[in-house]
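#lab-general

N.A. 3:47 PM
ok so I finally got the sequence cleaned up, no stray characters, all 251 residues accounted for. can someone with queue access submit it? mine expired

B.Y. 3:52 PM
send it over

N.A. 3:53 PM
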Amino acid sequence: MALNVQMFTATSGLAQHPSVQVNIPSTFKIIGGGAFDHWSGAGNLLTASYPKDLQTWFAAGKDHENASPSTITAFAIAISDPDNEWDVIIKSETSNPEPHPQATAVLPSGYVLTGGGAFADWHGAGNLLTASFPHSNSSWEARSKDHDISDPSKITAYAIGLKPRSPSVHLQTIIVNATGPVQPHPTAQVCLPAATPPWILSGGGALDNWSGAGNLLTASYPNGTCWLAAGKDHRTPSPASITVYAIGIHV
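B.Y. 4:20 PM
back already:
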């Protein structure tokens, strides 16, 4: 049973709080995804990048304190499954409202983690993503923070799991990561290693290793067979590094 994985994208219009969703064909199922906030000026920051369901990936961002309109691109990585040979599930976990909330979603036994997402459910000044990454081979962690202005919020973590319906099919997985240098606007990229059969990119994530005032995510998205992540400090200098993760699968 071959793996046919494709990527779908959509980009929003220019807005202070940009958002967009990717809707994929019904014969596909989402196994991972990401977001890229095309910020300039003062900056626009990620607040959401997650699967709404097996056919919809949603991404959102916002400016903060300073007006800074931007566009945002959502990425959905999906497996073609017209004959329903693959079981894909989405598990979620929501935190209590906190200034710096975090949550971890865990897959049931038997599923391979292929990707995940995060949604900061902010309502006041704003709570902004700082992490959405694989916590283990079977769980996904999401983190966010308010910035300068108090705004306790809930955060929801999403873990996406894949399992072949045929017991004769053995799905293999790999998670690789890399950490970039400490910078005001940190970036990092990690690529899947060469292998036979080749690893297929199914998802990825990012962890902004912030301290002090804070450094916030602006991007976590697929780039060929690699995953790229980016962040930025905002208003107050606060350099940080970013750890980026890529998930590969093959049969």
